[in-house]
Amino acid sequence: MSIDDYAFFSYCYPKTNTWNESTNCCSWEGVTCEKATGQVISLDLSCSKLVGSLSPNTTLVRLRGLKRLDLSLNDFGASSIPSGFNQLVSLTHLNLSGSYLSGSVPSDISLPSKLISLDLSRNYLLEFDSHSFDMLTRNLSKLENLLLDWVNISDVGDFPSEIFQLGNLEYVELSWNSLTGFLPKSNWSSRLKFFDLSSNYFKGSIPSSLGNLTKITYLGFSSNKLEGQIPDIFGNINKLTTLDFS
Known about the structure:
By secondary structure, the protein is mostly beta strands. It is built from 2 helices and 16 strands.
């Protein structure tokens, strides 16, 4: 856990301590319900000083109407992500970042087909194998935000060009992933607005096809092994505010 993580945790407090079983759960802190049905649609327990493991039998998967789940910045004691997220058929946003998770990411985490945002970042002991990553790129066609920084996806090997199968992607964070190989010469998604590949092991030249990213505002390639001249295409990307090759 980094110094930054400890700084975040210093501001955390146990939201569940305010929960009272004698009252309607829709009034509990961190819980949002659909007004018409009373069904729980959002659960925000981020930075709530939750400790222990995420149980494979967690009752969370019974919340079939859940659209947003945020368990970030907790301490799950290097436990693994349990299977069962495929049962959350309405889920659009899942955030498990910075919660001290480990092991392999279960393949069924990519089965909620409505998922728009997936954040597993800053879980240093978490691994994404090639099979699970392939399922992610095949199933999550609506995904717009993918944050996997500090997750080990070295099993994927070279640049995971499969992510360009996700045509709605706008925000991609793949720094500190132990990725290798060369940057692809083509297929860069024109919808991308933020793309960070810093602190990996990419080598070779910078492809001129990056000029296709007409909506990009941030491009990060720092701390790689890239070489050669920087192509002059970046001056034509009007929305680009940050370009980092340091």
